[in-house]
Amino acid sequence: MSARPAAASDRAFAALADPTRRRVFERLRAGPLPVARIAEGMPVSRPAVSQHLKVLKEAGLVTERPEGTRNVYSIDPKGLAPLRRWLNEMWDEALDAFARAVEEEGDGEE
Amino acid sequence: MKAAATSAPASTLLVRKQITVKAPPARAFRIFTEKHGSWWPLATHHTGAVDAVDAVIEPRVGGRWYEKGVDGSECEWGRVQAWEPPSRLVLVWQTGADWKFDPNLHTEVEIRFDPTTEGHTLLTLEHRHLEAFGEAAPAMQAAFESEQGWSGLLAIFAAAAGAETA
Question: Do the chains contact at A16 and B15, CB–CB below 8 Å?
């Protein structure tokens, strides 16, 4: 439990520290997109966007699947595993404390 | 009164918790909100620079969700998005994994209080839109690397969990 998060997670967040790459990643928040759509309106070239996607993929943040002649990218929810673990533990602890408080209060009332 | 069967689409971009508490929904809701600071594990779950003495959920839509420090300071956690006693509460969670308030972070915590046949409450909590944490990535990265950050937090969690059962 006290171990450092997996190196893969560090890589994920390091990948997102680059502002352009973060914009590429954010493009996918609404759903899967092909490279051409991701590159629309971006200040960098399409090959550069592809390169960013490659880094995101290697960091476990996005997945790629072929659809006809193009590749479609989507956010890989597994990249959020350490965050989910943090929230899981936090809410477990908070809700357990809440349940105890309700029981203690119940002793005094009714 | 039937629990709504409409569940959010299955997604790993949310964290879902269920727990049964021994009180009817009205009382559970009241303790959750009015007495928020009395049960919230403030020792480990707080954002301010100084120790926290209380946590407050203001009882209205748009209300603040914040902590009070020993020195009287107040630190924002988020705000109230839906206030529907005794059955439902939605809070906007704006605290990053580094336990810092981030006005640009918008995640949602929905808490439902459903009555059980025993007269107790089935509490269902969903923390949603976790993808928004991606926007706070640089801070998150710092949280990963700092001793007070992610790894430190997990150690604190483990220690606190052990101490609280004593």
Answer: no
Interchain CB contact of B161 with A (< 8 Å): yes
Q: Which fold has domain A7-108?
A: Arc Repressor Mutant, subunit A (1.10.10)
Q: Whole-angstrom Cα distance, residue B3 to residue A27?
A: 36
How many Å lie between the alpha carbon of A41 and the closest alpha carbon of chain B? 19
Measured between CB atoms, does B116 come within 8 Å of chain A?
A: no
Within-domain flag for B5? no
Give CA separation, A27 vs A74, A93, B138, B139, in Å.
Answer: 9, 34, 18, 20
Interface contact A91-B127, CB threshold 8 A: yes
Going B27 to B32 to B37 to B43, the CA torsion angle's sign is positive
What chain A residue is nearest to B164 in terms of C-alpha separation? A97
ipTM of the modeled complex: 0.73
Q: Is B80 within the bounds of a domain?
A: yes
The number of distinct structural domains making up chain B is 1
Domain CATH number, residue B138: 3.30.530
B165 touches chain A (CB under 8 A): no
Q: What is the pLDDT along chain B (166 residues), one digit of tens a residue?
A: 333 333 333 345 678 899 999 999 999 999 999 999 999 999 888 888 889 999 999 999 999 999 999 999 999 999 999 999 999 999 999 887 667 788 878 889 999 999 999 999 999 999 887 767 755 544 454 444 444 433 333 333 333 333 333 3
